Amino acid sequence: MKIRKLTMGQAIIQFLKQQYVERDGIETAFFAGMFGIFGHGNVAGSGQALHQYSDVFRFYQTRNEQSMVHTAAAYAKMSNRLSTFACTSSIGPGATNMLTGAAGATINRLPVLLLPGDIFSTRLVAPVLQQLESPNSQDFSVNDCFKPVSRYWDRINRPEQIITALPEAMRVLTSQAETGTVTLALPQDVQAEAYPYPEQLFEKRVYSIPRPRADENLLQRATEWITSSERPLIIAGGGVIYSEATEQLAKFAEQTGIPVGETFAGKGSLRYDHPQNLGAIGATGTPGANIAAREADLIIAIGTRLSDFTTASKTAFQNPNVRFININIAEFDAAKHAALPLVADTRVTLTELSQAIGTYKIDNEYATQIENYRDAWEEEVERLFHLDKQPLPSQSEVIGIVNEFSRPEDVVVCAAGSLPGDLHKLWRTRNPKQFHLEYGYSCMGYEIAGGLGIKMADPTRDVYVLVGDGSYLMLAQEIITSIQENYKLIIVLINNDGHSSIGGLSDATGAQGFATRFRYRDDNSGELEGDILPVDLAANAKSLGANVIEVSTLQMLKAALQDARDADRTTVVKIDVHFDTRVPQYESWWDVPVAEVSEVDTAKQAYQDYEEAKQKERYFLG
């Protein structure tokens, strides 16, 4: 057996550059490179290896460990989970900074490989710079925190352990059903140790991404359920896009007339103007989609996990006879709501269902209702895009301007606050990859880092990062990386001097917007209700190297977007909007517990309303 003596750090890089995936005859390198920040714990191991092999495996210097994981996850999402990045960090705080990103990737079922530094495996040296010690065991470090947010976790205490650990890591990363964060904790001494590795470990490996078919008997039963239903509704999730099944969904919807509601991850499954597209569904849904869900006798859930937002906290489906068919590559999701589970690839299953159902079509009355829902919603969108409020514009109007200005191939990215819900409802999606929302974890700070990952995955598209001031203040540093690597972003920074989303939620739960504005503490009351803080976000963005344009009107915003498109580097367009002007909630509800007892009248009323709404929550037991 041929061998190659390498350090463990060198062996990992040699392995990663040889990993490929193949689907439908198209082969793709699985790792596009590695993000990292060097420090105590990885500079002499992974860092040395990356330096040595920089000509064959690209390294990208980032500014924050959390954001580099977000960037990798966004890249993976844009690549339909067929390619991603590895991320390396130092020991201790560098490692635990990645926890939020790790959780987000796993929750959103996106493949990311994390290689955090770890304590000395010899235990001779104290756990320097991360003095987490226990009198009960020496067999843990801060990297054990990654266990609950990783789909696969291992600590490599001997250099030869990667011979079995790396293939297991790839098994999980390339699984469409099980993918998420994979964490290999690398003790700093072991990274630098040499071992005679078998040459076979470094040969090219191609992992086939299959398109499994549904069980024949279950498919037949699903056909019977569909053809006997009177008010069916499709819920399209992210699995439709990951499976590249948007054309098949459009044909199926046209063939049957069945309307479609889209989740956050599934928005773009159909063009916004497709006759069967009712738009967003759930707690942030449109009136038509939510009424159709409430009355449906059959829900065909395609590639969706049926999350809390999608099901409006299990209040969305009120027909006492409603049944569920779940088409999903993951058995765990296919079984939800006591559904008829079609554990299979979305594209293949839609094709087979189209053939099986024959001439079935919804009746004319239902078809007319769908058309009326769509017409009414288009009128509402136009109203929200043209509120003409003074002195500040609304967030919905800003969305309308950006939506109108952007091209179908461009991408909008967002993650947290009130923006995602407004975008879910209002954005007119014209391309399956045009709408990129991180809302499985609703992670503030994802936006700019995620925008960078999107741009890296497809540099031909303009990427519009819509971010509120609260989220911008949490994680804006990758503006620097976008400039360093010449990946231009168009960042629309929407400022309302606070957390408007939680402000609205606070009002709804009776807390009167407490501590959701960015204000001085008042000397008399002792509360945060003084003047607005003089924060200059434009100056901050400029200090990071961005081209910055400040605007105060919607007309100025239009001109600024053109200037941003023409610019040669990342451009931040900053605009102030009205804090309290929000897009309504339509025919839906979201369970946010309210204080059962209170001395505040608004909280008392909120609890009464909460108790009444909660009565609509349902168990689905088959």
Which strand order spans the largest sheet, edge to edge or round the barrel?
Answer: 5-4-6-7-9-8
- The N- to C-terminal Cα distance equals 57 Å
Number of strands: 23
Instruction: Summarize model confidence as the mean pLDDT.
Output: 96
Helix fraction bin: 25-40%
Characterise the protein shown here.
With 622 residues, the protein is of the alpha/beta class. The chain contains 23 helices and 23 strands. Strands 5-4-6-7-9-8 form a six-stranded parallel β-sheet, with helices on both faces. Helix 3 (65-78) runs parallel beside helix 5 and helix 11 packs antiparallel against helix 14 (364-385).
Write the layout of secondary structure elements.
Elements: E1 3-7, H1 8-16, E2 19-23, E3 26-29, E4 31-36, H2 46-52, E5 59-61, H3 65-78, E6 84-89, H4 93-96, H5 99-107, E7 112-118, E8 152-155, H6 162-173, E9 181-187, H7 188-191, E10 194-198, E11 205-208, H8 216-227, E12 232-236, H9 238-242, H10 246-256, E13 260-262, E14 277-280, H11 287-295, E15 298-302, E16 323-328, H12 331-334, E17 340-343, H13 346-356, H14 364-385, H15 395-405, E18 411-414, H16 419-426, E19 435-437, H17 446-457, E20 463-468, H18 469-472, H19 478-484, E21 490-495, H20 500-508, H21 537-543, E22 547-551, H22 554-566, E23 571-576, H23 601-614
Parallel strand pairs: 2-11, 4-5, 4-6, 6-7, 7-9, 8-9, 12-13, 12-15, 13-14, 15-16, 16-17, 18-19, 18-20, 20-21, 21-23, 22-23
Antiparallel strand pairs: 1-10, 2-3
